[in-house]
Each structure stands twice: as C-alpha cells, then as structure tokens.
Amino acid sequence: MEIIIKIPSEMYDWFDNGFPDEDDVEKLWQIIKNGTLLPKGHGRLIDESQIPGDSAWDFSDRLMSTPTIVKADEE
C-alpha cells in the first residue's frame, strides 16, 4: 500500500525529536488517515513543472526525461 500525505514541516521534525504531546500524535494520525491512497498498478508520478519545455522534443520523450517522484507500482 502506498499513500501520499501532506504534513507541516514541524510535524515531520517530530520523527527526529519526539512527539510533544498526545494531542499531536492524534493530529498526525488524522493526517495519515486522510492521505491519498495510490491505486494498485499506478504509473510513475512526476512533477509536471519539471517537464522540459523544449518543443523540439517529442512530448513522450519530454515526459520520459522528467524525474520520477514515486516509482510505478508494477503488479
């Protein structure tokens, strides 16, 4: 199972520094519960802002050269 979550940077720091209190653990749990579940067999995820803009390239070549953020789920 793969899930994408968005958390504030101070919450991410808790993994190194420890959780301040029980309420913060509950807040993080709610964020994880509300994350976006990636479907099985999904393709690779890219940042569209990183697609090269040179129109001389074929679009599929441009997409293939864009860095991958999350690898494809190969079932």
Description:
The structure is a single chain. With 75 residues, the protein is α+β, with helices and mostly antiparallel strands. It folds into 2 domains: 1-38, no CATH class; 41-75, no CATH class. It has 3 helices and 4 strands. The strands form 2 sheets. It has a two-stranded antiparallel sheet with strand order 1-2. It is elongated. The model has no long low-confidence stretch (mean pLDDT 87).
| Order of helix and strand elements from N to C terminus | EHHEEHE
Mean pLDDT: 87
End-to-end gap: 12 Å
Total domain modules: 2
Secondary structure tally: strands = 4
Helix fraction, binned, reads: 25-40%
Radius of gyration from the alpha-carbon trace, in angstroms: 17 Å
Shape: elongated
Query: How do the strands of the widest beta sheet line up side by side?
Result: 1-2
Sketch the major β-sheet.
2 strands, antiparallel
Class computed from helices, strands and strand pairing: alpha+beta
Give the helix/strand layout.
Blueprint lengths: L1 E3 L4 H9 L4 H12 L2 E3 L6 E2 L12 H6 L3 E3 L5
Antiparallel strand pairs: 1-2, 3-4
